[in-house]
Amino acid sequence: EETDIKTMNVDGSNVVNLTNDYPYDSFDGEWSNDGSKIAYVAEDANGDEDIWLMNSDGSNKRNLTNNGDIDDYYAEWSPDGSKILFVSERDGYPQIYLMNGDGTNQRNLSNDISYNVQPNWSPNGSKIAYIANDPTNTGYLTLMNVDGTNKVIVSTEDSYRPKWSSDGNKVAYNVYLSNSRRAINIYDRLSNQTNR
Predict the structure, then answer these.
(1) Contact 53, 75 (CB under 8 A)
(2) Using one digit for the tens of pLDDT, what is the confidence trace for 55-81?
């Protein structure tokens, strides 16, 4: 049974399947800020993933990345709704990519030998937090400008799932500890300090 993108009212009523006309899995839907569009990931018959876009009612579906057997996933809209961050493996390993909201002008922002995943926009759209994994598969919270410049690694522990605060001054992220424990760290950009 395939996975689909569905919407419903906040009380659980009026469930609508937006992708039941597509025969394979669709998942990780991401609303545009104005609510008019949804970016999402869809697999093809071979399990290869691409970033798709549709109107919020499920109409006008189109493949934005269309890379055949190369995976593109983890779409996230910019705060102003004009661009989409995503992860692409077209360079042989996961990299943070940026494209216009219509799929044009796709470009590699992270562009290094790390496995770069889980991008998250700062509220004003000027910075991107993401996780850069080293060859031992340890992930480090990393910040960069939206044009890919000024990369700074700010965590020293195995990290994942960064999220900006609403004022853009802090980044919360999870860390793996010993004995299978986990914790949440808060990085403060103003003081350059991390607290747990």
Answers:
(1) no
(2) 999 999 999 999 888 999 999 999 999
**What pTM does this model have?**
0.93
Question: Three-state SS across 67-136?
Answer: CCCCCEEEEEECCCCCEEEEEECCCCCCEEEEEECCCCCCEECCCCCCEEEEEEECCCCCEEEEEEECCC
The residue among 145, 123, 137 whose CA lies nearest residue 78 is 123
Q: Is the dihedral of CA 91, 96, 99, 103 positive or negative?
A: positive
Q: How many other β-carbons are positioned within 10 Å of the β-carbon of residue 148? A: 17
For 173, the 3-state DSSP assignment is: strand
97-127 as b/e: b if 16+ CB within 10 A: bbbebebeebeebbeeebbbbbbbbbeeeeb
